[in-house]
Design goal:
By secondary structure, the protein is α/β, with parallel strands linked by helices. The chain is 47% helix and 16% strand.
Length: 381
C-alpha cells in the first residue's frame, strides 16, 4: 500500500498525555513502515500544540472546537452534494485541503460513540471521521473504547458512520461485542495504540536521573497519579476525593518505608478536565509535612512520562493511559477508574491486576486492596 500523506484526528500533543502517547506511538510505527511520509494533525488545540513543537514532518492544522463543530462539520455534510464543491472547499480551507490531499485518515480517539456522553461529544466523534469519508479517503479508527449503543442518537450515528470506515478496531472484548451487536460481525479487538510506543535509551537515562535527584535516601517508590475526571465523579457521589486520597497516602507512609511521588499524567490548565496538575498540587499540599512525599510535573512529552512511571516499584493510577504506561513498563499497578475500558485493558494481562471503581473509593478500601497487591508485587512484575 503506497501512502505518503496521513491526516491524524482525535488527539493532541498538549494537555492530555494519553492522546499524546497514542500519537507518539502511531508516528513511531508509521514512520518505520512508510519512510518519508508526511503527517498533518487536525488539532483542537492548535496554538498549544505548535508551542510544544515537534518533528518537521508533523504539520498542525487548526481545528479548534467551535470552528470544527459549528463550521467544518456542516460544510462537510454540504460537501456530499458534489465533487466540484469538495474541490472548492479544499482550495479555500487548510482543514479540507489536508483531508483532500491525504492518502489515509487515522482516528486515534481513545473513546467514542458511548451512550450518555452528550450530543456535543457525539458530534465531535462524528467530526473525527466524517470529513475523510465524505472526501472518499480510507478512514482507520484505531483501537478505541466503543459503545454501548443503546440510546437512539448514538446508535443511529454509529450505524451510519462506523461501517463506512476502512477499519474499526475495538480496544477490548466488551467494545468488540458492542460492535457485533451493532451489526459489525467482523469487528476486531486489539490493545491500545500507545502500547506500541518505544522509549529511547537517553529518555530512560533522564527518567532515572530525575528519581535520583529527588530523594537523598533510597527507598521503594510508590507513584500516585490522580485524575481530575475521577475527582469530579467522586464529588458527584459525595466522596471527598482529595481527603480520602491524602488519608490513603498517609496510611501507606505509616505501614511501609517508601517514597511517594505524586505525578500528574494530564497536563492541561485552568478548569479543564485534563488539568491534573492543580489536583496533584492540592494533594501534595495536604501532605507537606511528610518528607518522603514528592511531586514532579514533567514536560509535555509522553515518552518521558512513560519512562518516569517505569521507574516506580508500584503505581496507583486513575488515567487510562497512565495505567497503560505502568503495565507496559512491568510496574505492579492498582487501578482507580470509571469505565469498562479499564477492565478491558487489565484483562489482557494474566496478572490479577486490582481495579476499583470510583463509586467504591475510600481510603480504607483502597488501602486494603493495596496491601494485598504490594505483598505480591514481585510475582506480579
Amino acid at each position: 500500500m503506497s501512502i505518503s500523506r496521513f491526516v491524524i484526528t482525535g488527539v493532541t500533543l498538549s494537555g492530555n498525555m494519553g492522546g499524546a502517547a497514542m500519537l507518539s506511538a502511531a508516528l513511531q510505527q508509521l514512520r518505520r513502515r512508510y519512510p518519508g511520509a508526511r503527517f498533518q494533525l487536525l488539532s483542537i488545540y492548535p496554538e498549544a500544540d505548535r508551542a510544544i513543537g515537534g518533528d518537521a514532518d508533523l504539520e498542525i492544522i487548526d481545528a479548534r472546537p467551535l470552528r470544527l463543530l459549528a463550521w467544518y462539520m456542516p460544510l462537510a455534510l454540504l460537501a456530499c452534494l458534489g465533487g466540484w464543491l469538495r474541490r472548492s472547499m479544499a482550495r479555500h480551507s487548510s482543514f479540507f485541503g489536508a483531508v483532500a490531499a491525504a492518502d489515509a485518515v487515522i482516528d486515534l480517539s481513545g473513546i467514542a460513540f458511548v451512550d450518555k456522553r452528550g450530543l456535543p461529544l457525539l458530534w465531535y466523534n462524528l467530526s473525527c471521521a466524517l470529513p475523510g469519508i465524505v472526501w472518499g479517503k480510507p478512514v482507520f479508527k484505531l483501537s478505541q473504547a466503543l459503545g454501548p449503543f443503546r440510546t437512539y442518537a448514538n446508535r443511529l450515528a454509529a450505524r451510519l458512520l462506523l461501517p463506512r470506515c476502512a477499519a474499526v478496531i475495538a480496544r477490548g472484548e466488551q467494545s468488540r461485542q458492542f460492535l457485533v451487536q451493532l451489526g459489525m460481525r467482523d469487528a476486531e479487538a486489539l490493545p491500545d495504540v500507545s502500547f506500541a510506543m518505544n522509549i529511547p535509551p537517553e529518555i530512560e537515562a533522564e527518567a532515572r536521573a530525575c528519581f535520583r535527584d529527588m530523594a537523598a535516601q533510597e527507598r521503594p517508590w510508590i507513584v500516585v497519579s490522580p485524575s481530575q475526571v475521577v475527582s469530579r465523579l467522586c464529588r458527584s457521589r459525595g466522596i471527598d476525593f482529595l481527603g480520602q486520597m491524602a488519608a490513603f497516602v498517609e496510611t501507606l507512609l505509616k505501614r511501609y518505608d517508601a517514597n511517594v511521588l505524586i505525578l500528574p499524567h494530564s497536563l492541561g490548565t485552568g478548569a479543564s478536565k485534563n488539568n491534573d496538575i492543580d489536583l496533584c498540587q492540592q494533594l501534595h499540599a495536604r501532605l507537606h509535612g511528610h518528607a518522603q512525599v514528592y511531586m514532579h510535573v514533567p514536560r509535555q512529552d509522553p515518552v518521558l512520562l512513560r519512562a518516569l512511571i517505569g521507574q516506580a516499584d508500584f503505581f496507583i493510577g486513575c488515567r487510562f493511559h497512565a495505567v497503560v504506561a505502568a503495565l507496559i513498563m512491568c510496574v505492579p499497578t492498582l487501578i482507580l477508574g470509571w469505565s469498562h475500558k479499564y477492565r478491558e485493558m487489565a484483562q489482557g494481562f494474566d496478572a490479577d491486576i486490582p481495579s476499583m471503581d470510583f463509586a467504591n473509593f475510600s481510603k480504607d478500601a483502597l488501602a486494603d486492596m493495596f496491601d494485598s497487591a504490594w505483598q505480591r508485587r514481585v510475582v506480579t512484575r
